[in-house]
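Lab notebook, bench 4. The sequencing result for the construct came back, and we need a structural model before the next group meeting so we can plan mutations. Quick request posted to the team channel:

Model the 3D structure of this chain.
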Amino acid sequence: MRAITLMLKIIWSPGNAFEDIRDSKIGPWIPLLILIVASLTFTTFFLSVVDPVDVAIRQIQQSPQGGNMSQEAIDDLRRTLTDSNFLRILAYVSSVGFLPIWILVISGIYFGIFLVLGSRATFMQFWSVTAFSFTPSLVGTAAGLVAVLTTPPAALDVGRIAVLTAATFMPLESGETAGFLYTFLQTLSVPTLWTLALLVIGYGVVASKKIGAGVRTIAVCLPWLLTVAARVGLVWIFG
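Done. Here's the predicted structure in token form:
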């Protein structure tokens, strides 16, 4: 219950919440569990509303490579995906494993960066701060759930589920012809930017050495910007 209260407190008073997390030495387990449950809930609703095979085929057909596939090849792919249940299994496995592993990796990266900057905080403290900082992703999950429930299945586009991104305001036709711009706008989401801000605050609280806000902001945002650049670059190159 204490951890849940702190997740709520992070929304309106992140500094005090992270101080409580540091002083009480609360681990990342409850936030991780809640994030997994939220992800599983979203996946279950998504798969109950739409056929993941139809969505996948539609995404493939919208890509430059998929546009060159024959109807026979598309039908064969549809039968293979339907018979194997691969997409449903992948969706549930990803729901359970992706976000916890991603948070663990992020924690390790930032722990190393701040260690170089002089921080003497433990890895567990960084892991806890990172897990709690992903609380805004619950807002994104809830918004995506509303999008799934209110969008006709035939018109549902995976990229459009993330309704709290700048890409929401980009016409779909433009997204198909300028994929790199669409991909970049997808990275500018409210939950992501909110999480980055929380990481800047949280790491400043747990770091034993005083590290300025400007340095913390650069240390947190630079790896994210590099990831965005790599993602957009791959889409630009391979289209």
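Residues 42 and 94 are 12 Å apart (CA to CA).
Will bring this to the meeting.
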